[in-house]
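$ ./design --mode recover --in tokens.txt
reading tokens...
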């Protein structure tokens, strides 16, 4: 029995939002923590967006993909997180029927875009390492911009059709204080699991494994070359560090992403009762938190992000020709 049938059988005649069982101090603390997470998500990703857009040196195909991911993460913090946290703290949906549909559609849309962006970043790093000369020649900004637009459009069409087929635009059964969608059933969850998790995440893992193998192969070849030619040791060292960092950051990004995404889809696939819906709703926080973690990963491992953040916070980007400053 899916969630729609469950709620229709129970009916909404006596449904009301549960009374608060938390003390005022805990209640306020939850809202403060939620606000902090939302601000971290929005501000962190906004710094990434401003950095990539403002500094000309960062206008590379890879960073355009990072920008797409940062935009989707920023929108999660702006349009999804505040309402989801309020819903959980209050144990009641207070924003009405229409916004419930828009909220769920936005959540699914941004999830799809994030998955597509991480897959494209993995593919970009694989091509850059496997054939760097061909990558520099053929992978232009125009091609990357086209892929980004297609990923957003495809995600929109996929989710629109998925919602329409499941009746979420017309047949969503909503009691006052509830926000349930018909995609929480076994068939819908299985289909979404295949197209949003199994296929994309399988590609991520394969591509990352190839990136790791290639980076190790390059490192060994360069080490051998370095032993024979001492005069290129500095350049060799920089290349080795760059390749290892690219593989390391990509690996962290991919595995953190998978760690936040997979538990939610496993629970939706296994669940078919109203009680499990509460569990799903709580686990969904983990995936939203990925939007907060990504800027932290950039801050820890990308020196250009650290430099750009300092310049943005100190308002140096307002200076003339600041966009041409060397930040890499």
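writing sequence...
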């Amino acid at each position: 029995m899916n969630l729609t049938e469950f709620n229709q059988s129970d009916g909404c005649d006596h449904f009301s939002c549960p009374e608060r069982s938390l003390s005022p101090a805990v209640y306020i603390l939850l809202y403060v923590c939620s606000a902090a997470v939302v601000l971290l998500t929005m501000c962190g990703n906004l710094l990434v967006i401003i950095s990539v857009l403002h500094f000309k040196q960062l206008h590379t195909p890879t960073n355009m993909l990072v920008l797409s991911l940062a935009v989707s993460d920023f929108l999660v913090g702006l349009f999804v997180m505040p309402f989801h946290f309020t819903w959980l703290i209050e144990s009641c949906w207070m924003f009405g029927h229409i916004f419930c549909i828009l909220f769920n559609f936005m959540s699914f849309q941004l999830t799809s875009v994030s998955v597509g962006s991480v897959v494209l970043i993995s593919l970009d790093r694989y091509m850059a390492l496997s054939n760097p000369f061909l990558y520099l020649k053929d992978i232009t900004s125009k091609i990357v911009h086209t892929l980004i637009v297609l990923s957003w459009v495809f995600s929109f069409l996929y989710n629109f059709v998925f919602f329409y087929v499941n009746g979420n635009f017309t047949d969503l059964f909503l009691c006052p204080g509830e926000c349930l969608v018909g995609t929480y059933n076994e068939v819908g969850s299985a289909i979404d699991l295949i197209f949003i998790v199994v296929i994309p995440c399988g590609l991520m893992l394969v591509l990352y494994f190839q990136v790791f193998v290639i980076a190790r192969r390059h490192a060994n070849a360069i080490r051998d070359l370095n032993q024979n030619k001492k005069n290129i040791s500095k350049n060799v060292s920089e290349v080795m560090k760059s390749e290892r960092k690219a593989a390391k950051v990509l690996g962290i990004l991919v595995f953190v992403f998978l760690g936040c995404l997979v538990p939610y889809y496993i629970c939706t696939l296994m669940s078919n009762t109203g009680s499990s819906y509460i569990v799903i709703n709580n686990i969904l926080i983990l995936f939203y938190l990925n939007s907060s973690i990504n800027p932290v990963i950039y801050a820890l491992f990308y020196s250009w992000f650290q430099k750009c953040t300092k310049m943005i916070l100190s308002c140096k980007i307002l200076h003339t020709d600041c966009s041409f400053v060397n930040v890499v």
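exit 0
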